[in-house]
Amino acid sequence: TLMASAVSTATIFPNIALAQEGDAGIEQIIVTARKSQETLQDIPLSVAAFDRTLIERYDISDLSDIAQRTPNFSFSNNLGVSGGVPVIRGIGTPRSGGSSSVGIFIDGVDTSNSAGINIQSFDIERIEVVRGPQSTLFGRGVLAGAINYIARRPNFNDAEREASAEIAEYGQYRAEVRASVPLNQDLAFSIAAQLRGFDGYYNDAATGE
Predict the structure, then answer these.
(1) How far apart are the C-alpha atoms of 113 and 82, rounded to whole Å?
(2) Segment of 25-39, 45-59, 84-98, 178-192 carrying the highest mean pLDDT
(3) Phi, psi dihedral angles at 60 (to 5 degrees)
(4) Is the pLDDT of residue 2 over 60?
(5) Does residue 143 or residue 70 have the better pLDDT?
(6) 180 near 172, Cβ under 8 Å?
(7) Among candidates 173, 168, 166, 2, which has minimal Cα distance to 80?
(8) Per-residue pLDDT for 191 more than 90?
(9) DSSP alpha helices (H): ranges in the chain?
(10) Virtual torsion, Cα 163, 51, 65, 146, nearest 10 deg
(11) 142 contacts 101 by C-beta, under 8 angstroms
């Protein structure tokens, strides 16, 4: 059983909407891969972006789900939570310290922890997969590319409460709750928690578990 929780506060004004309608009526996704807000159509990088609408629509929960919908990116978690290696454009050999040549970031901060490399996409506003060397943007060692998780921000206008749950075969379950409370027009607070578990597909021949 895994327990994950997140608490975030903000003292900034509400962010610009992530999805905007362009002149031709085509939805535009705003990305921050180059540390500034740009449309996915205009950024001169190879970027795959998933906003909250796409995360929910495709039920994206981890790197395996992201890899299924991202060209030139693969990930296998067959060796357990800490055993997977993300591969972008054929490069994914672990570098010294156990980290991959694909950087994993949360709000632009390197996780630097191979044991937590398969981050759950819970309470995430957007996921950006940047393909190609990005050492000038994310730091040294990001030889193949970078995956940046942008955390969901509190709502500055209205209080929010959300809860969801699911169960499936093989003892799999997931329960999530989130609350967001605006304190004033410049300050808001949010808290989120997730409880999940999975018994696995196979029985241990020695113990029967």
Answers:
(1) 9
(2) 178-192
(3) -75, 120
(4) no
(5) 70
(6) no
(7) 2
(8) yes
(9) 52-57, 63-68, 135-138
(10) -130
(11) yes
